[in-house]
DNA sequence: CGAGGATATCTTCGCAACGAAGATATGTTC
DNA sequence: GAACATATCTTCGTTGCGAAGATATCCTCG
């Protein structure tokens, strides 16, 4: 699972959202570092739906424009949880290596 | 940057290593979750070398077999640090969402 | 001694996710 | 009426990875 997909699931963990809403939400979530393109977004949503991690929710018409909402499934929640677990282990390992390295080879001696 | 690449940089943060050593080291680092294949490993090393994040270190002959060591460059250390920073933000955001969701929709009511 | 497994390198090829780009359409703002 | 924000979706190229295998040496076990 790559970062855009991970962030889409994370965004949907709070509440069902529609595509365009996900673009802005993911941008916020990531501190502006990830700006989803439509190709990435809709490709990921289709894939996640195929995998049963998200589902089509309701559809709304707001100001004459359709909004298609997606929601996280239970399987999606489980998958996201597993990915978080995995990532936090990896991050901790890397942090430990980097601080050990800083001790061994201090930038400022 | 994807997980195999991230783990290769993390492994090299401790000390220079050769390819085969990286395979076992990354497996350990990841708790056995990531088993590098040669195609992944040498492809990543070539790419990282092109990007200046790792460098060829010394070469040793041990028991008649060549060992080509790679080391993390300063740029590589910086890149790894940035990636760790980025990931830890993302992970924290996801953890917050997941626990909020658990409060809203407890699995055990 | 021969087979198999561990150590060690590297290449080829296909796939999946992403990113760039753009098509389409409505509403709002200047 | 031009430009921008909202909202959908498609096409196509790139990239990193994974599967598979080629090559070679050393060690262990029967």
UniProtKB/TrEMBL annotation, chains A, B:
InterPro entries: Metal_resp_DNA-bind_regulator, Tscrpt_reg_PadR_N, WH-like_DNA-bd_sf, WH_DNA-bd_sf. It comes from the Bacteria. Gene3D superfamilies: Winged helix-like DNA-binding domain superfamily/Winged helix DNA-binding domain. Residues 8-80 form the Transcription regulator PadR N-terminal domain. PANTHER family: PADR-FAMILY TRANSCRIPTIONAL REGULATOR. This is Transcriptional regulator, PadR family. It comes from Asanoa ishikariensis.
């Amino acid at each position: 699972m790559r970062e855009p997909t991970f962030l889409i699931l994370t965004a949907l963990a709070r509440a069902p959202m529609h595509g365009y809403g996900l673009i802005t939400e993911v941008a916020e979530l990531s501190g502006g570092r990830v700006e989803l393109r439509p190709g990435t977004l809709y490709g990921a949503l289709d894939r996640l739906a195929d995998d049963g991690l998200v589902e089509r929710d309701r559809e709304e018409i707001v100001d004459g424009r359709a909004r298609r909402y997606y929601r996280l499934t239970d399987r999606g929640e489980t998958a996201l949880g597993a990915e978080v677990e995995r990532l936090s282990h990896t991050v901790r390992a890397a942090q430990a290596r980097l601080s050990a390295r800083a001790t061994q080879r201090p930038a400022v001696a």
